[in-house]
Amino acid sequence: MSFLVPVLFALTLPHDIGQLIGARYPDWKPSRVATQITTWFSEYRFSFEPALVRADFNDDGHQDWAALILSRGQQILVVAMGSGSGGWNVLELSSTTPDPFTYLLLYARGDKDFDFKTLKKFRHSANSLGLMHFRGTPLQFTWKKGGGFEQKLSLSDEELENQ
User: Fold this and answer.
1) What is the pLDDT of residue 155?
2) CA 135 to CA 7: how far, in whole Å?
3) In whole angstroms, what is the distance from residue 58 CA to residue 146 CA?
4) Which of 13, 80, 116, 131 has a 20 to 30 A CA-CA distance from 151?
């Protein structure tokens, strides 16, 4: 029995985005995620996949895509930003050693959350992307008003206690 499954199973990455990714990462393939995580996603009926998220990250009215891929021995987070002309701009946000327990989360605009650093509840003001690491601190990527993604750590209460 395999503990890894390919994760591009319900959402499908548009062909033209796949071609753009292929031009930059010729050996790319979808990242593989541990069965426990894909089962959790299925049970909770998320609107996105563990390695593929569709959302409007820069609030321009066009859908953007985030994909966790494997290439050159690395697990890479790429985002394809949609434009009004139908084109795409592919950005690399992260590159790490492959780990089947790494996956993506969407923090949707308006979703409730808790800041463990300030110990306050808040709502997300924009669609943000979470890169979750089982063995490390998760990262959160949010589009800045001036352009580009801002990266910050998503510390848990346990991690704050150990600082």
Assistant:
1) 57
2) 20
3) 10
4) 13
Q: Which tens digit of pLDDT belongs to each residue from 138-159? A: 999 999 988 899 998 875 544 4
Q: What is the pTM of this model?
A: 0.84
pLDDT at 96: 94
DSSP state of 109: T
- Distance from the Cα of residue 107 to its chain's centroid: 10
CB-based contacts of 155-160 (< 8 A; 24+ apart in sequence): 155/116, 155/117, 156/116, 157/116, 159/116, 160/116, 160/117
CA geometry: angle 114, 118, 124, nearest 5 deg: 40
CB 56 within 8 A of CB 63: yes
